[in-house]
Every structure is written in structure tokens, then in C-alpha cells.
């Protein structure tokens, strides 16, 4: 079996958080969907909460520190990305947006992405379409058709509500798996693999 890596970006602020809970369920469903397509997959999680101060520093200095650089490299090197945010004031969180603001604008080009969001009420569900999807379209990622929104009632709304959420997760994960399976494995280029010889630098080449 070939191997792929799914990276989960979770912008939840509390511990534990419904955002991370949804992210974990999407990741597990993605791994299972890839397995049915003959692809072994692993999942790595980037918790943006741990990088809040790093991101603020990056905004004012223009450079990520070592910890944030590792998180960015993990995301850029993923075969598939699962991006999940809480919804505040009818849009994605500032922490979530800041992370994608500091990425190189070409770094997600062609990358399969599954979108997810959580909020206290279903009234925020359209934020996935009017906020998150345009963001990743701008970054030229390939976004799965189904995005997954979970409101408070999805976690405590009884069997029928829980089944509806599970079905959305299953369908979205299947779409992500199809996108990942069709794309060659992501290769993270090391900028130091082919350094310019010192003699060439001296010669101005």
C-alpha cells in the first residue's frame, strides 16, 4: 500500500474543544476512506492555539520562529489538509486566518483540502461557504465539495442528529480521499538541497 499524510489544522481555543473533536473525527474518517482505496495514511495535528504568540510575532517581524516554521512545514508537506475553525461573528477565527496569512501564497496550490467548522448555533453554517471556501480558492487549493459544520446540537441532539453529522463526515472524508488518491505524493523541497556554490556567488552568478 502507498502511504499518505493528512495534516489537521485545528483553531480551537479551549481544551478540550468541539473544534478539535470535529477535526479528529474528520481525520479518522479520512484515514479510513483512504484505506478503502488501498492507501495507508497517517494524520498529524497542528494546534494553532499553541502558536498564537508565534503567529503574532511572525506578523510583525515577517519571519516564523523555529516552532512555527515546523508547523508550517508540516502543513505544506501534507498530501491532504483538514482545516477546522470555530466560527466567531459569522466567520472563521482570527487565529485561523492569521495562520494562513503567514503561509507563502503558493504553498497550498493544488493541495486537497477538507473544510470544517464549529459554532454554538447552526445559523453560522454558511460561514463555510462565504468565508472559508473563498479563502482556500484564493490560495488555489483544491477543496472537497462537502464541508462539515457542527453546531452544539450536533453533539447532543440525539441519535438522528448524530447520525446526520456522521454521514456528512463520511461523505466529506470520501471526497478528500478521492482527491488525495488522484494526486502524486507531496514532496517537501529543502531549499538547502542544492545550494549555489560559493565560487558562483563570488562571480555574481
From TrEMBL:
Source species, domain of life: Bacteria
Ribosomal protein among keywords: no
Molecular function as annotated in GO: oxidoreductase activity
Keyword tags: Flavoprotein, FMN, Oxidoreductase
Every NADPH-dependent FMN reductase-like domain range: 6-155
One Pfam family here: FMN_red
Protein name: FMN reductase
Source organism: Planobispora rosea
Amino acid at each position: 500500500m502507498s502511504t499518505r499524510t493528512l495534516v489537521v489544522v485545528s483553531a480551537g481555543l479551549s481544551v478540550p474543544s468541539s473544534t478539535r473533536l470535529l477535526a479528529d473525527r474528520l481525520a479518522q474518517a479520512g484515514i479510513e476512506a483512504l484505506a478503502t482505496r488501498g492507501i495507508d495514511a497517517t494524520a498529524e495535528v497542528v494546534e494553532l492555539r499553541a502558536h498564537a504568540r508565534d503567529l503574532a510575532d511572525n506578523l510583525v517581524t515577517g519571519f516564523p520562529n523555529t516552532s512555527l516554521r515546523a508547523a508550517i512545514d508540516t502543513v505544506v508537506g501534507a498530501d491532504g489538509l483538514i482545516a477546522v475553525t470555530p466560527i466567531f461573528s459569522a466567520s472563521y477565527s482570527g487565529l485561523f486566518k492569521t495562520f494562513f496569512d503567514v503561509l507563502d501564497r503558493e504553498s497550498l496550490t493544488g493541495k486537497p483540502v477538507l473544510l470544517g467548522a464549529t459554532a454554538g448555533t447552526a445559523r453560522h453554517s454558511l460561514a463555510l461557504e462565504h468565508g472559508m471556501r473563498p479563502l482556500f480558492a484564493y490560495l488555489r487549493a483544491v477543496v472537497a465539495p462537502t464541508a462539515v459544520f457542527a453546531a452544539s446540537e450536533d453533539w447532543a441532539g440525539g441519535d438522528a442528529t448524530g447520525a446526520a453529522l456522521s454521514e456528512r463526515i463520511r461523505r466529506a472524508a470520501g471526497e478528500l480521499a478521492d482527491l488525495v488518491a488522484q494526486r502524486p505524493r507531496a514532496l517537501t523541497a529543502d531549499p538547502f538541497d542544492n545550494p549555489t556554490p560559493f565560487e558562483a556567488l563570488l562571480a555574481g552568478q
